[in-house]
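My current task is to audit a protein record that another person submitted. Please read both lines and tell me whether the C-alpha cells look consistent with the sequence. Do not assume that whoever made the record got everything right. I have pasted the whole thing underneath without changing anything:

===
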Amino acid sequence: MKFRNWLGLLLGLSILGMSGVVGHADADYDQALKTAPQGISLDNIFTPGTTSNNQASVVTTTNPAASGTQAAKVNNGKKQFGALWSTSDNVFDLTKNQSASMWLYFGNTGKKAADGMAFVLQNDENGLAATPGYGKTVSGETLGVWGVDTDKKQTTPDKLATKAIQNSWALEFDTHLNTSTNYGNTGDADSFDVGISGPHIANNYPAETSTYQMVRTSTLLPIYSVGYYATQTHEGVLKGDYTLLANGAWHHLTLNWDAKGKQMTYTFDDKDPATGKAQTGISESATLDLAKIDPNNTGETRWGFTGATGDSYENNLVVMEEVPGLVDAQATSTLTDTTTGKKINDGDIMKGEDTFELTYQLNYLSGKQSWKDIQAQLQLPAELTYEAAEVTYADGTSTVVDVSDLTDNQLTIKLSEALSEANDEATITLTGTASNPKSPVTVDSAASTFSAVNSVVSAETVAFTLNPTLELYAASLSGSSTQVDAGEDATMKGLVVVPEGVNLTNADMTVHTTLNGKAQTDFKIPDGSDPSSGRFDVTVAAADLQTGKNTLVTTVEDPYGNVSNAVTFTITVSPQLVFNTVAEKSSFEDTALTGAQQKVKRTLDWQVEILDTREAGAKWSLQVTSTDFTRADGQKLAGTLSYYDGDDRTPISDTPIAVGQGESTGNDDLTNVIDDWDEDNGLLLEVNSAAVQGKYSSTVTWSLNNVPE
C-alpha cells in the first residue's frame, strides 16, 4: 500500500510537470493576442512545416477591434523550432514586383528575450519539411533557418552551411546576441553575433559558405587544444537597443520586391501600432542573387517565417496585412474645402464653417483573388461635422451610408461589392461642415483601415489647422470725409471690433488700404495704451494725394484670414497755385571784362516750377523784382538785370515786372518757366564799360499771381 501511494504521488508530479511544459501560457502571449492589429485570415495562406519538431501554428487573435484577424505563432516556449510556409497557391513570384506588409511581435522581455525569428525565401528540396540540421537539441542561434555550428573541429564552414535551409535567403530579427568566443564555447552554436552590439535586423544566404567564417581559438589547460567557432556575416544591418524588438509592442514591416533590379527593400517600424499612422521607420535594401535562391530558374520561391529558441524564449507572432501576389490594393484620402474649392494639403489651413468633402479612394491593382467583404473602419478627422456619406464603385453603382451611427469620429462601413480587375475602384465620400472654434485648432491626421480576409490597407487624412471664421466690424471715427489744403497730410481715425470672447489684440490685426485704387503699405495696429482697443490711424502723406477728391478704402484682417467690411473715406485736397520748385541760388557765367558793354548769360542752375491744380481755364502771372548787384564791400555793379522777350527788353528793378503767364488745363499742370527761355531770352545780366571786376550778388524775388477772369 505504501509503495502504491508513493507511485501515485510520483505519477501526479510527473503529470503536473508535463502540463507546465506543454501549456506555455503567459500573460505576455495573452496580451499580444488581445492587442493584435487588424490583419487578415491566414486560412490557405500559411501551412505549418511538416517536420516532427515543428511547433508553429496559426492562432486566432482576441482583439475585438481586429475582427477576423489570425496570427502566425512561430515560437512561444523554450527549445522550440517553428516554421510556417506559404501554401502552393501563394508562392512568391520573383518575376513580378511584389509587396508584403505585416505586424511582428517579439515579446516583452527586452534583454532576456531569445532568440527571434526570420522571414525566409526558400527552394529547399525538402519543401515544407525544410529545417536546419539539428541534432538532438534545437539551437536558438539558427532562428530556424541558419546553419548549425556543433563541431568544434571544423575549420571551414562547408559542413555548417549544408545544415541550413538550402537555396534560401533570410531576413533575421535577432533579439539575442550569441557572442561566445573562448575555447570552452567552440562548437556550441553560440557565436554568430560576434561583432554585433545589440538586437538587430539583417540578411544573408543561410546555405552559402560565404555567410560564415570559422575562427580559431585555443586553450592551454588541461592540455593544449585548438577549436573553431563560427561567426555570421550580417548584411544590411538595422540595429538598436533592447527596445528595438522585444519591447512588448507590435512592429510593422513592409517588404517591397523590385523584380527588374532584383532588390528587396525592408522597412521596419513604418507604422504606429497605436494609431496605425505612417512613420518614417528604418530601412535597408538587399540585391538578391537569384541563382542562390532559385537555382532551377522556376521564377518562384516558397516564403514564410521560422524561429527557434534555446533555454530562453519569447513570444513570436506575425499578423499579415498584405500577402505577396494575393491582393495588391491601395487606399488614399483627399480633403477638399468646397467653400473655396481648394484641396487641403498637409499643414494647410481651413476656415471654420466652410463646407468640405472627404473621400477615401480604394483601388484594386492586381492579384490572384478579388478583394471582397471589405470593411472600412474609418477614424475620421475631428472638428468636422459629417452630414452625408456615399460609396460609389467603378461600375457606376452607389450606396448611401447612414452617418447617424457615427460615434467618436468612428464609422464602420461594409462595402457591398468586391473589387477586382472588372470593378477596380470604390470611393467613400463624406460631406459636411467644419466647426467654428473661437481660436485655431490643430486637427491631427487620422488613420483608417480597409480590411478583408485577404488584404488590409490603410489611409491617413492630412493634418490641418482649423481657423475661426469671425465677423470683424470696421468703422471710421473721422466721419466719411475730410478736406485738406495742398501740401497737408490727411488722417482717418479708424476702429475695428471683434466678436465677444475672441482673444485678439491690436498687434494681431493688419490694416490694408488702397488710395485711388492703388494698394498702400500694410501695417499692424500699434498696441498703444490699450492693446485691445482696436483703434488705429491711417495717415496719407500729402505727396500721395491728388488735387480734388481722393478715395481711401480700408479693411482690417485678423491672423486667421478673416477680413472686415470695407470703410470708404474721401479726402478732398483744395485747388492750389503754388511754386513747386524754386532754386535757392542761381548764377550767371563768369565773365572777363573787356571795357565795352557786355551781355552775361545764365548758368544751368536756374529753376522756377509752378504747380497749378485749379480748374481748367484759370490763369496765372509770374512777376519778378531785383535789388542792385553789389560786392561784399558795397561796390555796386555798373550794369542792369533785364528781361528779354525777343526784341523787347525790360530792366528789372524793385518794381514787379511780368516775366511769364499760363492757364490751367485742369490736369494738375506743372510748368517750368525756365524751359521757355533760351540763351538770348529770359533774365540776362548787362554789364557796361565802367564795370569793375569782382563777385556781385542780388536778391531776386518771384511773385505768382492769380489772374482774375
